[in-house]
Amino acid sequence: ELKVEQNPLFLSMQEGKNYTIYCNYSTTSDRLYWYRQDPGKSLESLFVLLSNGAVKQEGRLMASLDTKARLSTLHITAAVHDLSATYFCAGGRGSQGNLIFGKGTKLSVKP
Amino acid sequence: AAGVIQSPRHLIKEKRETATLKCYPIPRHDTVYWYQQGPGQDPQFLISFYEKMQSDKGSIPDRFSAQQFSDYHSELNMSSLELGDSALYFCASSLIPGGPDTQYFGPGTRLTVL
């Protein structure tokens, strides 16, 4: 059974600083997703990572995948207040389309 | 671009009542997923459909049922509602189950059971 663990669960950052959110998963996962969720809102897709060594970047966010270590990271560069949200990683496996989510990282960026 | 549509957006019910949630996937998406997200929790997979057939089942209570219709929209039927059913219910759609494409989430239905 696929299990996904994120850390930290809470992250308070100052604007302009860098930080990394970690996502470990327990068994082989074909694909790893990162989503952003604002309070009470939907989940917005950020990245889909499909292969070992995959790296994707969008603005101040960069995601990577190491399938051998069963680890994905979401790196935040020079944080700004607008990045405050909860970030979820989720794994998918085989022909089963459903996603298994981590507990989420609640990010708060302060001036 | 067209997104996933869910209705209603908000729903208030009493205990033991029934509720029906609707989901209209992105055009050409054959696969629909339902997730439940409790307050402060991560989304939990309930059930999915591909080409109008149930494709996978998660932690969906026996009191809940769902189906996908010929136009690919899906409905989640919930009976004998309990206080613990209060949550955000998301529908997501993708092109094929288990594929490399993104699952796109709808805006959610906030269900409150009193």
Short descriptors:
heterodimer, A: 111 residues, mainly beta, six-stranded mixed sheet, five-stranded antiparallel sheet, 11 strands, B: 114 residues, four-stranded antiparallel sheet, 50% strand
Rg estimate of chain A, integer Å: 13 Å
Can you write the helix and strand succession of chain B as a string?
A: EEEEEEEEEEE
Number of strands of chain A: 11
Q: Biggest chain pair contact, residues each?
A: A-B, 25 and 31 residues
Sheet with the most strands of chain B? 7 strands, mixed
**Separation of termini of chain B?**
37 Å
Shape designation of chain B: globular
Overall pLDDT score of chain B: 93
The total count of helices of chain A amounts to: 0
What percent of residues of chain B are in strands? Answer: over 45%
Overall spatial form of chain A: globular
Alpha-beta content class of chain B: mainly beta
The count of DSSP E runs of length 2 or more, i.e. the number of strands of chain B, is 11
Report the order of strands and helices of chain A: EEEEEEEEEEE
Low-confidence stretches of chain A: none
- Looking at the chains present, what oligomeric state does this protein adopt? heterodimer
Q: Which percent range fits the helix content of chain B?
A: under 10%
Helix % of chain A is under 10%
Annotation field: number of helices of chain B: 0
Radius of gyration of chain B over all CA atoms, rounded? 13 Å
